[in-house]
Design a protein that fits this description.
This protein is mainly alpha-helical. The protein is 49% helix and 6% strand. Strand 1 and strand 2 (170-174) form a beta hairpin. Helix 6 runs parallel beside helix 9 (146-158).
């Protein structure tokens, strides 16, 4: 088992995927011979928790003791350390739903144009600027990206507004 999944071991990747503690004392050649002769059995596809722990214990620590009355200390270490966290996660209550994401600029624009814009604009004093629309009506952060500026201008024109400017300000005027 390598990085939480079963890997096919070849002679080329033996040193890369097997722990040094396994192959270094006997050498890569001898380790590969053990694997090829079946001295290290491939695990079954579906193992129980105990069978999986026994398999790992045998290959990490050597041959298991065969006494039935005394549980193998090596298996209990593996079962406690490697599997207790997985079992705790399975028993844990589900995580709360992630907070809802804020609506995107386009969603805000679609929801507030043109009806809400008309009502909101009547309550405003002075010029209706793009920044005022974005921050006041859409509750979105200024400055806008170019694509959002274009979307705002298009939505304002479709709602019946025209862009004007004087010496100091660009603003929107409702078409008559």
């Amino acid at each position: 088992m390598i990085q939480g999944r079963w890997m096919a071991v070849t002679q080329e990747n033996l040193a890369e995927h097997y722990a040094r503690g396994y192959w270094e004392p006997i050498g890569l050649g001898k380790a590969w011979e053990e694997i090829e002769t079946g001295a290290i059995a491939n695990p079954e596809a579906e193992l129980t928790l105990r069978e999986h722990a026994e398999f790992l214990a045998e290959h990490l620590f050597g041959t298991l003791r065969k006494t039935s009355e005394t549980p193998d200390e090596r298996i209990s270490i593996i079962a406690e350390e490697f599997y207790s966290s997985r079992e705790e996660q399975e028993r844990a209550p589900p995580l709360p739903a992630p907070p809802q994401q804020l609506p995107t600029f386009e969603e805000r624009l679609d929801a507030r144009m043109p009806e809400v814009l008309e009502v909101w604009a009547t309550s405003q004093k002075g010029h209706i600027t793009s920044r005022l629309v974005v921050e006041g009506l859409l509750q979105y952060q200024w400055p806008l990206s170019t694509i959002h500026q274009r979307a705002l201008a298009q939505a304002m024109r479709q709602a019946g507004w025209t862009s004007r400017r004087n010496a100091t300000t660009r603003f929107w005027v409702k078409n008559a």
